[in-house]
Specification:
- The protein is an alpha/beta fold.
- It has eleven helices and five strands.
- Strand 2 and strand 3 form a beta hairpin.
Length: 217
Amino acid sequence: MVHIVIDLEMNPIKKDLKTIRKFLLDEVIEFGAVKLDENYRQVDEFQCYVRPEFGEINKHITKLTGITNETVADKPAFVEEFKNFLDWIGTWDMTLYSWSSSDIKQLKNECAYKLPSFDADRLERQWVDVQKEFDSRIGLHSNLSLKYAVGAMNRDFEGTQHTALADAANAAAILALMQDNEKFFETMQPVIDLLKPKDLSQSIGDLYPELMNFKFD
């Protein structure tokens, strides 16, 4: 059994391509993934850029990810790179993970449009949302960003945020910590304590308003 933590960077399809947008709103422009062994130790990594087929890279996406039209100009399109990704995994004896459910939704939609012969439902059956598991473990009812989850572990975010491989590697670090329940709660206890207001007027939002508005158990 291997564990694959994946992150995708995506680019929106041009709004004037209305027929295509009925089926697909975004295209993958970068795959990043790390492979963990049965003990959740990293043993390999995968990264590639993908040339979008329906429009140039949006300026906002370039600002967010650093990916430009020049970055992807000579890269293969989705079908080839997706097959390369599956070849890299090399087995179906695996579990796939991502931070949030957006990546599996994107793969399912893009496979349905560009590679309809592939059974993307099989991917979903082997997929785990690490963000959902993390939030549930510490008692959150709202989604904590990957950056703040890493910070809650008292770690610096490794690499550049919103680059696929760095996001996958940081999510993998959280996943690995979650396998040791005692160590996880020891590490996260200060955050869990912070999430429990001392009185009705105090909340995590008062202390860290830039995070988000939380509901508490």
